[in-house]
Amino acid sequence: MTRKWTPISTAEEALKAILALPKAERARLFDLMAREPSLARYMMSPSPRQLAFDVSAEFEGAPDYVVVFDGGSEGNPGFGYGSYAVITRDGRQRVRRLDFGDDMTNNEAEYDTLIAALEDVSERVEAAGKRPADFTVEVRGDSSLVLRQVRGEWKAKDERMRRRRDIVRSLLSRFGGYRLVEQPRAETVKVLGH
């Protein structure tokens, strides 16, 4: 039997086709999209009703990776910057500094830093020939807005924030388990140096 394919020409048609997929295939599609960071940045953000995010993907014991993140801007909006640390279970630590350029708010810089950190961890796991689903990650930061929006405790009213929140959720859902930990600013400074 030959199946007839109809070309998809609008975002609404694409979303309808994706939502018609069985749940496992839909999850596989989002996993494939998340593997390609350039696609994740431009993917259409589904509404919470369309793609549920499990805010309780807790796990027992120590995480395989700890991500500590922070971002800001010189002016608001202004020149955006950020930094993050990735700490492995065996204690190895790598800190990375980021510059995002002009016309960025503090909250956008916080989100973009977390996105870069989660993409980094995923890419390193895959470069080692493994799957993020076989690892756990704990995200630590002092940004109440980012962590509480990702958890669903606070609404992301602005489209720019919703899009970033959904990318973070997509990246987190690739891991076998994750925790979001709000920590005092002093703890973030201790790890990142600022």
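That was protein one. Protein two is written in the same sequence-then-structure order:
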Amino acid sequence: MKQVTIYTDGACSGNPGPGGWGAVLQSGDHRKEISGGEKQTTNNRMELTAAIEALRALKTRSHVDLFTDSTYVKKGITEWINDWKANGWKRRSGKRFLPVKNADLWRELDSLVANHDITFHWVEGHAGNEGNERCDELARRAIPQG
């Protein structure tokens, strides 16, 4: 399997508000940058969308190291998702269960993760990590204006 390193980031101007996402994919000497935006969204949706679109861009099953500065994405996909699925896409809130926020995107990310051998890594945002800084720039540029 091919080895791929992915960096992802999302950004919002207001939360909710217009938002953008960016991703950098690298395999050997090949590098690809992708980005996009939405007129009305949240930061968490853009963080998830960045990971989804990056994985969608892969053509074949791969070993992936995916780096995100979002603890929501990292913990959601590595810690919380199995309980959500077992509870019918509901999360415990005290003594009751509430619908999982962004369940549509979590389902999509979960199905894409199943196609690859992925390790998720958290990196501190705005701390000089080159891949994370580039994704932040891509995400911010992709925020729809006006």
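The helical segments are 43-56, 71-86, 103-113, 130-141. Keep this in mind for the problem set.
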